[in-house]
Amino acid sequence: MKKHILVVPGDGIGAEVTTVGKQVLEAIARKFGHEFTYDEALIGHVAIEATGSPLPGETLTKMRAADAILFGAVGHPKYDNDPTAKVRPEQGLLQMRKELGLYANLRPIKLFDELLDASSIKPEILRGADILFFRELTGDVYFGKRERLDEGNTAYDTMIYSKYEVERIVRKAFEAARTRNKRLCSVDKANVLESSRLWREVVQAIAPEYADVEVEHQFIDAAAMLLIKDPKRFDVVVTGNLFGDILTDEASQIAGSMGMLASASVGDNTGVYEPIHGSAHDITGKGVANPLASVLSVALMLDISFGLKAEAEAVVGAVDAVLKAGYRTRDIAGPTTQPEHVLGTDAMGQQILQLLQA
Ligand SMILES: NC(=O)C1=CN([C@@H]2O[C@H](COP(=O)(O)OP(=O)(O)OC[C@H]3O[C@@H](n4cnc5c(N)ncnc54)[C@H](O)[C@@H]3O)[C@@H](O)[C@H]2O)C=CC1
Ligand SMILES: CC(C)CC(=O)C(=O)O
Ligand SMILES: [Mg+2]
Fold this sequence. Notes:
Homodimer. It comes from Spirosoma sordidisoli. Belongs to the isocitrate and isopropylmalate dehydrogenases family. LeuB type 1 subfamily. The two termini are about 20 Å apart. The longest helix has 19 residues, at about 15-30. Helices cover about 40% and strands about 20% of the residues. A hairpin with a 4-residue loop joins strand 6 and strand 7. It has 13 helices and 14 strands. The chain folds into two domains: about 1-110 and about 265-358, Isopropylmalate Dehydrogenase (3-Layer(aba) Sandwich); about 120-255, Isopropylmalate Dehydrogenase, CATH 3.40.718.10. Helix 1 crosses helix 11 (about 290-305), helix 9 (about 220-230) runs parallel beside helix 10 (about 240-255) and helix 11 (about 290-305) runs antiparallel to helix 12 (about 310-325). The protein is of the alpha/beta class. 1,4-dihydronicotinamide adenine dinucleotide (NAI) binds next to helix 5.
């Protein structure tokens, strides 16, 4: 199969982890006889430095021409610590999602059994946890009107959803629930927010079309608690942009680390495959970032954008085998990990590549 892949490393550890992700794509192409071509483009802080824009026109053009995009992360402390900055790396990410129509962000939360000791949650609560989040990605408070008033002393952001935006993500979640355990949990704050009341109304209106799927509604505050108390009660979860952003960072503790969670951002056209984590300034350049979220994002790309199931399984199998062999990056090392098995980013990548080359 011939495919053209755009690699967009972005900022911080984005470059470190997408380097490994691209090596995995190259190994899969060799192993299975595919012809993958690659290009690279700028986004975020590095793009602002080079062009003045967090999403240069050239990057967008290359994104539209690609069959799939491997994305790293954006963000830089310079902007995090300057609330008055007018141009910000994160604007590039949000604009990319809007421009490419990436309204559905799929975030699988799957615990590899070998990582039971990497989490501070009790193993009996964690074992068998397997959740698929559908986070809406092009609406909500991230895209609503925001403004400063009162000479800068008052500020507001608008949480806004239209019916069609809720319908399309909710339908995707119902379809996925049908292929899994036929359970869907919709998360909102309908006891307070009007946009959440619309959300719940839409879920209730669509539910009869999927009578084989059991639907429950949870408020965001209770859902955040239940996720840690009893993660196995969830199967497919659908929620808005802000609630999904926060709940899935929380859910990373079910999988062991932010460095383990991959995602697929899909919509009408191309797909963007990205770890859920950010640019992680605290560990940038130290060579310790966990590349497995990027590697597992490659597996999602192979499966969802290219329909290459066996290739995707080979990647997930390699991750599983490396963990079974006891290798860990620092963030997922547990009390039983042997010190010589704690690897840096590149060394962990090499372990995966060796298995894919075998
Ligand atoms: N998709 C994106 O590009 C995102 C960008 N950001 C941006 O990233 C910057 C840093 O934000 P934070 O709140 O610190 O979130 P973060 O996700 O970058 O890091 C949170 C914590 O998780 C750890 N971590 C993250 N990825 C890891 C990995 N692969 N291996 C090992 N440890 C890992 C970090 O070291 C840090 O302690 C900010 O500028 C923020 O705006 C934040 C989230 C997502
Ligand atoms: C800039 C943010 C919206 C990025 C983020 O936290 C995410 O997509 O998970
Ligand atoms: Mg986030």
